[in-house]
Request: fold
Amino acid sequence: MSSQVSIIDQDAAIFTISVAANLAGMHPQTLRTYDRLGLVEPRRAKGRGRRYSRRDVAKLRLIQRLSQDEGINLNGIQRILDMDAENERLRRQLARVTEQRDEALARASQARVFTAETSGAVHLGRVRRRQLALPGRS
Reply:
């Protein structure tokens, strides 16, 4: 019998507010407050109940640590979260640009290069110019 590991989507909204609060070590009312302030934005179920993802719970734990262990106020935490999100966005953008550059370099290395002389002669590849010898030098 083979062992099969299932991967849970980090953004799947699967936890109710009571479960998320328990996992984050907080009171459900604290989660409601954080939702109102925009620190964590859970999805809503059909009955309008909040549903939290694993990523939301990790963010709640980070907020808890920053607030209690580091003494950072909620405005400071919001700025940290905003900068973290911007940093992640920039990392994804850099990865896309790097991938595009690598693809362009791969295409360019396979492309044909032609060189045209002033006489009109065309050569496949680049032609190295002969250096002119100075008089008296061989």
Observations:
- The mean pLDDT is 86.
- Helices lie at 17-24, 28-37, 54-68, 74-110.
- The first strand starts at residue 43 and ends at 44.
